[in-house]
Amino acid sequence: MPRELALGVHTLTLDRPRVMGVVNATPDSFSDGGRYLDPDAARAHARTLVAEGADILDIGGESTRPGATEVPEGEELERVLPVVEALAELGVAISVDTRKAAVMRAAVAAGAAMINDVSALEHDPDALAAAAELGVPVCLMHMQGTPETMQEDPRYGDVVAEVCAYLGQRAERCREAGIPASRILIDPGIGFGKTVDHNLALMNRLDELADLGYPVVVGTSRKSLVGKVLGRSVGERIYGDCAVVGWSVAHGAAIVRVHEVGPMRDAITMTRALQAGRGPA
Ligand code: HH2
Question: What's the CATH number of domain 17-276, 3.10.180.10, 3.30.450.90, 3.40.50.20, 3.20.20.20?
């Protein structure tokens, strides 16, 4: 597994778990839609996430929550670009959460140093070429179906084996297209075409994903994985999320994608101390 990620002017060593803070420049994201659509609000929020210890900020302009329909390219660009530009000054690596090659290209030109594609570069036929040409790390996420219908009736034989096989194949496809292994990350896509039991199986056997040899990104923040187990609404999932983040880093996650950076940093620090059997130096 690569020991470090080259993110433009930033180099992130992966000798400890890293935190990706979510900035949704959307009107309709499932947990914070409409709060950070305005670039000034996004910048203020991003500053807080950085102060709390975010290593990467993930900027998205299209909600991929269950039932969401695709946002036209022009609209996604209008949402994302001002935010990427506004955050470039914060001195932290920026990732762009998009399925569209044009958004990848424009965001990287504006300062983004990583691509996060929930369709593993499959949705847009030009995305694989764009990612190879842009030369930035890319996170390949597994999703069964499309956001619009993915939660209607997700089915697998062995969900963990199928997700591992898919991500292994997509990583191989990226390498054939000229993206080196050192720029590939993988993500099981918690909540993307999966029941709560599928999500729990993937979390339970997260080590199998890590064994593929690429850094694993895990995004469970505020999702129904916690909501369904605990019977909690979106705003009440933070304690459950802390447990999930602790579990994730104990079982091989290199990066956790979260909305609440400060509390999740605490969960990571505590988990690491428990793993080491001693406190921080
Ligand atoms: N989850 C969401 C969006 N992007 N990217 C990766 N790599 N992994 C994830 O689990 C993931 C992701 C969904 O969360 P959010 O961005 O908060 O919601 P919405 O899609 O409604 O904007």
Answer: 3.20.20.20
